[in-house]
Amino acid sequence: MIEKQDEHILAQLQKEGRTTNQQLAEDVGMSTSACWRRVRALEESGVIVGYSALVDREKAGFATSAVLHVSLERHDAKFVDEFVSRVTERAEVMECFATTGDADYHLRVVVCDMKAYNEFLDEFMFRLPGIRYVRTNVILKEIKTSVALPF
Fold first, then answer.
1. Hey, do 4-45 and 58-138 end up sharing a CATH topology, with the first three levels equal?
2. What is the DSSP letter of 47?
3. Could you give the CA distance from residue 89 to residue 3 in angstroms, rounded to a whole number?
4. Class for the domain spanning 4-45
């Protein structure tokens, strides 16, 4: 269970990850040393897993984004392990979820254009062993994208 002060720290860091410890401590109403210790404890416990910059996908040249619904032919360990291993290696795959329902996995993929997406399918997805089907929903417009948890 995360304490209330830690929630305040995490909420502030999600808003502005480049804030100084001094500013963070002021924002959450703590001393700088106590704030630093709490942040360090959150990092060491694995609650904070890293820091990164948020990049505008389209401005960075990745105009095409899609959600793939993937179903495997068989669910034995060999096919599942290979699928998971290969998918996690691909930079185009931003997220991969094992799910219930019609599809076994849902992937969010970003590429520069439809030609690149077609190459991703032809040269990668359709060559993976054990794939029953891949269905695509091309994202027309991103309404909300967030990585911040709702503290």
1. no
2. S
3. 35
4. mainly alpha
